[in-house]
Amino acid sequence: MQKVVILGGGFGGVRCALDLSRYAGDELSVTLIDRNSYHLFTPTLYEVASAAPIKEDDMFHLQLRRSISIPYSKIFAGKNVQLVQAEIASVDLVNKRVTFAGGDPVRSSLAEVRRTRAFGASETSNGIDFDYCVLALGSQSSDFGIPGVYEYAYQFKTISDGLALNKKMQELFRDIKEGRAASPISFLIIGAGFTGIELAAELASCARMLSKKLGLDKRAYSLTLFEAAPNILPMVQDKERDIIVKRLTELGVAIMSNSFIESVTSDSVKLKSGQTVKGSAVVWTAGVQPSVLLKSIHGLELTPKGKVPVRPTLAVSGLPSVYALGDVIEFIDPKTQKPVPGLAHTALAQGRVTARNIATSIKGRQLKEYVPYYDSWIAPVGAKFAVAHLGQGSTLTGFWGWLVRGLADLRYFMSILPLKQALALFRRDLMLFSKND
Question: Given CB 3.0 to 4.6 Å as the disulfide criterion, which of 38, 214, 269, 388 pairs with 378?
Fold first, then answer.
């Protein structure tokens, strides 16, 4: 039996596991290893940070956590996939073994007998041997060497990051209402990519709603978005950027382009121009880097940017039984000669190709090459407003763009969950996150 180990449960890793589960049987076993027990739906992380009921309690935070944390037990229920919840200590691609950190990992499968049959003596309490390995480890925040980013700025990659920012926002408004602080509240958001603009727009909508409900002046808050480049979202068309800039301005978000950050403190951002901007909270959305675990993997060569070079089939160069996908890879688009961006839908496509190629490789058939497509994107810009670029010059804005975004989320939920559960999750999120609209 061929053993496939998938490292990481992001969009590409989950898709690869689900597709491979269809092939699992006497010839193939599939194991997904992740430090968490859930799949994080990152496209709505900004909603968690900006959700704002007047009454904050533990139950509310639990609701927020459940809104974008989808348990693997639900995703893989009835599927031929075993989940191992563990921190990875090391990966040896030469000897084909993954070792876990700490004590015994948490394992789940359809039946103990299936696990025993699948692994036998190759599985021990601190590691797993494999025949095929998929590197889907994702990315983590990068501070680009700027002092103070990790120490003082709110990061924005995990559910804990989103909840921490939400808690800070609630505390700031309560302090003004109860006379413990003077207005205005000022959020400083560094990085005007898609994550930065989505967060800035929704925080502005949330602040406006909170100010109104608490009886505060509309000047009780301000938001500033910093971007090092001359324009926000340099990858989008001018007409679409103009729509987004206009929308952000209407929401009260000040955009500071050509703003290179020199250092960060808990309540300020210092620019290389010498200007210092004071604020109540600093949020970092400016950049990510591939998982640092890659640097410690025995037998893996990386590009100067710390990414994994892959062949057109997504197999790692020089390692035909190792595949990589998502944020960890450097895949040069033959049409543009530029790296394919790390987006959710590109990771999903890579997960499908990887699963197919592993299955066909086991059977000795010809592998399929990955053909990248990323000429579509959706940018929510506060409340029920979004800009949806659907490719080939087609763009929907405002409510219709927001509707397309909602349908895209529902479609994804339906692709990984049973229909009833997918609809329930979509409805719950819609009710929870529509309070700012």
Answer: 388
Domain that holds residue 417: 377-433
CA-to-CA dists, residue 134 to 309, 321, 324, 363, angstroms: 13, 9, 5, 18
Verify cis geometry, omega within 30 degrees of 0, for the bond prior to 184.
yes
Tokens of 188: 């400083």
Report CA 223 to chain centroid distance, whole Å: 23
Site of tokens 């992380």: 45
- Does residue 59 lie within any of the structural domains? no
Nearest residue to 254 via CA among 280, 232, 226: 226
Beta bridge partners of 29: 3
For the chain, report the end-to-end CA distance as a whole number of angstroms: 53
Tell me: do 327 and 355 sit in the same domain.
Answer: yes
Residues 6 and 131 in one domain: yes
Residues 239 and 129 in one domain: no
What global pTM score does this model have? 0.91
CATH of the domain at 166: 3.50.50.60
pLDDT in tens, 164-214: 999 999 889 888 888 887 778 999 999 999 999 999 999 999 898 888 888
